[in-house]
Each structure stands twice: as structure tokens, then as C-alpha cells.
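Next comes this protein:
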Amino acid sequence: MGLKGKLIMSLDISSHGDIFHDIFKHRPDEFASVSPDKIHGCDIDGQRGVVGSVLCWNYTVDGKKQTAKEVVEELDEKNHKIVMKVIEGDLLGDLYKSFKLIFHVEPKGDGQLAVWTLEFEKLNKNVPYPTAFMDFLLDVTRDMDAHKTSQ
């Protein structure tokens, strides 16, 4: 019945991909200072920057405060890629059976492209596609890019 889905969106960025990758990998709590209206905090369980570490996020999407606990499943330095699987939080339970976030950066002409992929399985056909969450991720990416290029 098509309950599994995938959304992919990309965004031109001025910053280098290694900057974004480094922030996700070593300093995800920095997102809260750059996008305080969207991300309120990020705690890390385990060692920073390694597969298996757990990121605990507090954030707001569409005016609603939410939480997510994600385990880092993959880190790829060459492609500035990080794969995170949601293991607890507001995305799971009533909405999605599984939810995975994939971020990577790829070259685009003289610039760079930030690419977000969401892979998910809805609990039922009435659950909406996570477009609001994708918009949230793109907004945070824009905020981070503007912050890094202004430094």
C-alpha cells in the first residue's frame, strides 16, 4: 500500500561541505545558537563524531515543540555525509514506524549543494508526508549557511 516513502530536497549553499559535516559530526549543539527559534538544544550521548553516538534534539516545527533521539549510523568524510536514524521522539509512535535523515553535500558547478533525504515508513495511509519537517531542515540549513558565510 505504499507506506514507505522518501523525500529528497537540495539547497545551494555558500559554505563548504566540510563545514556542515564538521558541525553535524562534532558540534551539533551549535545549531541552537544559529537557529534558536527552531532548535533549542542538542545533547550528545557517547563520543562526539563517531558512528553509534546519539543526538538528543529539542526543536520547534510549525510552532510545536518536539524532541528526537537519533543514532548516527554512517559518517562519510569524502562526501560530507551523515546518516541518522530516529530511535525516539515525536516523529515515531503516532506518525512513523521508522524515520531516517541523510545529509550530504555535493558539488554543483562552482558551488555546493546541501542535500537532505528523509526515508520513512508511515504507520497508516492517513499520516502526512513529512514536508513540514523537510521545510524545517532546509530553513536550519539556510540559517547555518548564512551564519557561516557571515563569519
